[in-house]
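Structure ticket #2291
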Amino acid sequence: MTTKATIRTRLRTGIVGVFFLMALLAISGQAVRLHVFEGAWLSERASREYERAMVVQGKRGAITDRNGSPLAVSIDSPSVAAYPRQIADRQAAAKQLARALTQPQREVYKKLDPARSFVWLKRQATPRQAEAVQTLGIKGIDFITEHSRYYPNKTLAAQLVGFSGIDGHGLEGMEFYFDATLKGGEQEITILKDALGRRFEGAGMPATLTGGNNVVLTIDSTIQHIAQKALEASVTEYAAQSGIAIVMAPATGEVLALAHYPFFNPNSYGTFERELWRNRAITDPFEPGSTMKIFSVAAAIDSGVCSPSTIFFCENGEYRIGRNTIHDTKSHGWLSLQQIVKYSSNIGSVKMAERLGPRQLYDYLSAFGFGRRSGIACPGETAGSLSPFKSWSAIDAGAISFGQGISVSAIQLIAAASAIANDGLLMKPMLVKEITDRNGNTVKRFSPEPVRRVISSHSAATVRRILKTVITEGGTGVNAALEGYSVCGKTGTAQKINSSGTYAKGRYLSSFVGLAPADQPELVILVILDEPKAKAYGGIVAAPAFRQIALETLSYLNIPPGPDADRLRVSRGNRANG
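Resolution: structure written out below.
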């Protein structure tokens, strides 16, 4: 009995021992398989659960005006992320998060798909949104600090400054053009989570990350505000589609203001039409109309072909060239070259161009910078259009002399006018003064750059004297006259071209370009209104905006009146066409 009991006990013990031995062998085999054969795969899978690789950037550099006033800055902004596999109740979490982040619940629910290990819920959330999410206390929600772009002056110089996207890359304007300069250093980091889904503070975060450099523009925020205010008033008053205003310092080529209307706010650029983002002063070519007479007259005087007193018969308002007929807005007989400019006679300009000849007209206009890019530091610059003189027909030279058959950009036009103000020396347009580092130290300085001498100093002074008469009584630019200052300039009213290539009836581009003070110009100002409805002539719709910009800017810069200001004052009640 005792022997049988002993045998049974030993048998049971053996069976249990074999079972445990087999279990130990199975566990050992599984351990070997997991660690030796599938170890790399399991480590990678574990990493996906508890690690997240991200590329972080140093703080983007600022864009400022010439006086250091910020136009674009970067601020710390919380971004809300989620680890969907750690969220217990997907439906309830989606409902709460959607309310806190003001997002559609369906979209949030879709983002919280358990098949995803990591997802952004809201990049660069507002502090109120981040606080609302944090108070929910939902497990699996994370907050990661990023840098967001902020434009403190909202619409001020928006088309020039541009904007950057949510990932910190410049998309438009100077943000795009100087993206490599502005953006900070990049580094890939790994965010670590513990078993409860809590992020280790500072885990994987770089100790130092290089910030971007700053771009200092030539723009003056005060003058920019003056230009935008005047432009908005004119576009609104005359029901125009849009407008452009530029203020330039002729001696250096520095752009002190570059305004567009309608405005847009780069802080919420996605809510505005893409058409409003574009810097049309740089990118869009147009036929300039009678403002081109400044440069054709300058060519005639500098070449010695004409003097201000040279007279031409203006055919009483109608002049045929082959099958084409040139018209003036008013009938004129004999006019001097000076009067041709004052009254803006197209026929007189054509006859002057006939005496000058196609080759000389082309050479001077090309020297003024038309038909080629200026090289301004801004994206998308157009070269405009100036066809070779050998391809011109009998009518082309005359038409080009008064601004038809040629296209220019606003920046080309004001740079060329600045050459007249700068005693015949053309300067390269400047938009950037310098690049500085995070501590304000200069990395690169941009100096004024002469391009070429276009006309002599004497010829430039003669042209300015002619342009003074445009502002006097009977001239087309009388509405540009300033109390206490002498100014000079030229009106332009150009008929726009349809998509079919023909001139559109009732659609005009109206402009005025002026120099102030007239004898020693410190400012050149260009105002352009696109398709004004109430009136069309540049002397009526654009000249008053020039007057307002010039008067306020001259006062702001403490520029004294010229010596002959009193003699050139005129009655502003005299409404003239141009």
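Closing remark: The longest strand covers residues 503-516.
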